[in-house]
Amino acid sequence: MKSICRSFIMAFSGYSISPKSKLERNKENCSFILVFIPLIGAIICVLINRWAVLYPYMCDYPVLPAVVGAVVPTILSAGVHLDGFFRTTDALSSHKTMSEKLDILHKDSHGGYSAIIVCVCIFLISMGIWSEMPIDGIFIIAFGYVISRALYGISVLLCKHTSSDSSKIASYVPDSAASKWIQVIINVIYICISAFLMLKIAGTFSVPRPAVAVASLIGAAVTFIYYVIMSYKNFGGITEESGGFFIVLCEVVIPIAVLAVFKSPI
Q1: How far is CA 75 from CA 18, 94, 147, in A?
Q2: Per-residue pLDDT for 165 more than 60?
Q3: 21 by DSSP, 3-state: which?
Q4: Tens-place pLDDT, residues 67-113
Q5: Is 215 within 8 Å of 260 (Cβ atoms)?
Q6: Which of 128, 123, 19, 140 minimizes the C-alpha distance to 73?
Q7: Do 221 and 155 meet the contact criterion of CB atoms below 8 Å apart?
């Protein structure tokens, strides 16, 4: 129980804007952290849903709602995943050897111009997507913040990590196989509940469109496959930084998939 409580504290102190904990980042304190990281996504989901209800009464133009949709998730997660996206993009754009790419991930604190350009483009694309998103679509994509973090947890538990001693996520995997698989199952449950709610909400639209929910799930799955292949190919396994890259990318791909279905003439 002590380890679970410490993991809860470490999850929210390390992956949200909540006050930072003084606990040491080790296996004892982080062995259940991957169970709690999706809960941060659930908080973002609730806030985005509430914003979707309120903003039609507060805003006359789509710019502010788009800015909130694009920026608030990053603020609530303290920019942790964006940092991983930044470093991973920098490493990928360097076109160097695997060991040099790992050095960029773990040691190089200087931002390359490619990473800066891509991050700016990501925010502009996100704002553009949000400015066009129907309110019904927001209720669907809000669950993507849970799904992306649950998939990240599954990848940390089941996929090979880099051989670099600098990799931080090894402390997230418990030594017990039973504990590891319990956490995998819990993250799968997060995904199943989110998928069920997405399908249910899509089925209650004024014009029911289950395809909207299906498209978002397909977008998340395709992004996850790309993330694993990319990590293995370029880094020899997943890292905390490439996991952050996945979360940011997944939370852009899901809205794109949803909007594509809404705009589809079929």
Answers
A1: 11, 28, 18
A2: no
A3: coil
A4: 999 999 999 998 889 988 988 998 888 888 888 888 878 776 666 77
A5: yes
A6: 123
A7: no
Amino acid at 78: A
What range defines the domain where residue 155 resides? 2-263
b vs e for 163-190, b when ≥16 Cβ sit within 10 Å of the residue's Cβ?
Answer: ebeebebebbbbeeeebbeebbebbeeb
How far is it, in rounded angstroms, from Cα 227 to Cα 155? 9
Could you give the CA distance from residue 34 to residue 210 in angstroms, rounded to a whole number? 30
Distance of CA 157 to the CA centre of its chain: 16
Here the tokens at position 247 are 């979360």
C-alpha–C-alpha distance, residues 257 and 264, integer Å: 11
- How confident is the model over 234-265, as pLDDT tens digits? 999 999 899 999 999 999 999 999 999 988 87
Of 18, 153, 21, 127, give the one whose Cα is nearest residue 77: 18
Query: Does residue 236 come out as left (phi exceeding 0), alpha (psi in the -120 to 50 range) or beta?
Result: left
Decide: pTM greater than 0.90.
yes
Q: How many separate domains does the chain show? A: 1
Sorting pLDDT into bands at 50, 70 and 90, what band is 174? Answer: confident
Q: What is the pLDDT of residue 122?
A: 93
**Three-class SS of residue 238?**
strand
What values do phi and psi take at 161, rounded to 5? -95, 165
As a whole number of angstroms, the distance between CA 168 and CA 53 comes to 39
Q: How far is the C-alpha of 67 from the C-alpha of 193, rounded, in Å?
A: 28
User: How distant, in Å, are the alpha carbons of 116, 187, 190, 211, 229 from that of 8?
Assistant: 32, 15, 16, 35, 30
